[in-house]
Amino acid sequence: MYKFKKEQVLDPEFLTKLIRNFKSEYIPRFERDQKYYRVQTRIEQRTMTDGKPNNKLAHGFCRYITNMATSYFAGKPIRYTAADKNYDDALKEIFKNNYINSLNFEVSKEASKKGIGYYLLFINENAKLRIKKMDAENIIPIYSPSLDEFLEAGVRIWEEYDIDGKLNAEYADVYDEKYIYHFRRENGEIVYSQYAARDWHMLNDIPIIVVWNNEDRMGDFEPHISLNDAYDNAQSDTANDMDYFTDAYLCIAGASDILEDELSGDEDEEETKAVKNLRKNRILFLDEHGQAQWLTKQTNDTANENYKNRLYKDIFFLSQVPALTDESFAGNLSGVAIKYKLIGLEELAIMKENCFRSAQTKMISIITGFLNLLKNKDWDSDTVEQKYDRNFTENLSEIIENVTKLENVVSKETQIDMLPADIVSDTADELDKIREETIKGENLPKINVDDL
Prior knowledge:
Number of helices: 15
Strand content: 15-25%
Distance between the termini: 80 Å
Number of strands: 14
């Protein structure tokens, strides 16, 4: 967590040192996390000597943890609601044009992998507000050294290569609350800096939104990479043992005649008669002192399997992500029972939501500032509500039954708000439909039963 003043970051010499430090301290970690997510684990670099079997079985526990945690937390879209109908429509139009649901999922996944993710807001050539997901490797957040520790500036870095992969230039854009300052380096020298290239980004705050995965800025599987490596090694060694057994040697004791024939170097025959008979007819003749047995490596299968099972359980227990193939998930479980089994994943999602909500609040504030400028309005971003729904199989009949029991106990709005997004995605819109149906029902002509 870098804490500097903006004036320091805008100094070319200081900025060069900052980027060099970031690339040496953080980039290797982010690249490692990305490799583990792609199931490119450390086992792939293992080497064996003397031609021994070298199986390299990589397991995607890290990928599973991130996909499961992200899908549970962000698999269902965030529900945004503004009290003002025009404001609500304008805000949702911006989100729709930027595919916000997919964007939120990808940023959440980036944070799950590397501990931190980013949105970058910008105005394109058509004067449209656009939101882009940025990789952790391309953004350096700079916080204020004051007690508030607010975002002081943000640095976006990237590189330019030619067709042969040769580095042509390095770029850095420094964002503050008003401008974008452009820097460029060629052959280790600053070619131009912010004094020659500066653009107004036309937004009311630093347009970089930082999303922490948790307060420690650590990915969901980062603390458990060593367990993934241990499991890879154990399974690969088991596969190696199987190869050792397949390549077992036949040990023949007391068959000196075969050895003497081999040592005589008879050039007229490629193989001795005894060896030929063994290979062709699978019959071995030994004298009264002879003995034949397979020479194999003895392994303790029970201990090995117990070790691997222990690693397997530890990975899911410590990561707080359940193994859905576990027998405890079988059967017709109630909603409460399912939630109890997912309590670890729910705690993980709560930590994500706390960080995600504050990032979304800032993004909505920037978007609202743009809409106010564009439409000459004074909409307040604090009036926008965010609702997060967990993505898991629910017992709908149980939920509907509980909602029905609250009839005449709580308001209709509260009842509807308790329903999952699969049934009602917009509470205000649903209330409007109920009012319209009620009005239509009241306007229907009254029918006298006696006239029928």
